[in-house]
Write the structure tokens for this entry.
Amino acid sequence: MTWTLEVEQSLIPGGPMIQRFRADNGLRLLLLRDASAPIAVYQTWFGVGSRHEHPGATGMAHLFEHLMFGRTRTLPPGELDRLIERVGGETNAATWLDWTYYTTSVPAAELELVARIESDRMHQLVLDDDALSSEREVVAAERMERVDDDVDGLLAEKLLATAFEHHPYHWPTIGWMDDIRGAAKDEVERFYRTYYAPNNATVVIVGDVDPDDTLAMLTRHYGQLPPSELPPSELAPEPVQTGERRVEVQRPVPADRALIGYKTPAQGHADWAVLELVSTLLNGGPSSRLYRQLVVDRELASSIDGSVMPTAEPGLYELSLSMMRDVPAEEALAVIDREVARLSAEPPPPAELAKAKSCVETDFWSALVSLEGKAEALGHYQTALGDFRALLATAERLESVTADDVTRAAATYLSPERRTVAIARPREEA
């Protein structure tokens, strides 16, 4: 197994270098040496999320988030967690629309243990009937708790399913219930052999490590793993939305709850950073425009929150509202339309924009303080956007946003015909 150094780049001028290597079996490595403490974070990012699934087999990537903690050919059930706990480490995983990742924090001296575990479950996971049946039921119960019996989870699912009619962002990461319970063993095995392979993975290591020793260690554990044949990316394009879409449900809530999604570009688009500023101006805390109008001055809502989805494909700017009792969500929508129209016509004053920019940049860099934060940011940008250096490009774009950019983006992306609204109404008494 041979390695090629592809890129060296620091996060900040004069800072430690991030090195990106590529092995001849396709495995990528992002390595950032940080000797501030004798610990290391080891993450494995796979280029597979719910958008890589297909109708009838949704929820597969999330199912593997559970299966990958099970038995391998060398590790009995539960042994993975026991080994990590024994050395004082912590391990977890996450699945989303564009990726799946597995993360472990350990003393730096125990890094090879993680490499052995990760290479093992990448190539030697045991997918027997008992394990599959058990984890299907665990995921089904999770879906009941987090979606079917949870208003916020249900609205999030309804919003994406209504906003995206053709693109695979249409279905939820956890999957539809029928697909979860009906996941066939041959389909599960095929999914594993296709996507859990070195040429679809990026290992991210941040901590007190030696680059040469790390490359030798990974060669020992991944050198014999063959690449898979990845299917071509053939995503159904989402047609341009030309009118507002709405979906409503009745649930046992005391007042209307609403989730609003405006169609926005992918995170790699230059306007994504501008929309981060737009979001902060509109809903970034108690002094933001919509919070003042809806929560403080008019007392129409008890809370409002929002964010721009950091997606590989065009996604949504989401606004979440909890209305006051007996106040319909439509009153909030009217206020939102007025504030968006004002922002689309009048550039924000310099002081307001400077404050919003300071908040966004503070949040951006604060997320990179910890070893885990650095690893997660590097893994996300490499996997979702194809290059970890997009992280630095985003920082530069945030810094360069102007008031005119904000006005243009608000006018371009936040029109009512580009949005989808999901509302939960209080259930009517029988």
The CA atoms of residues 285 and 291 lie 7 Å apart.
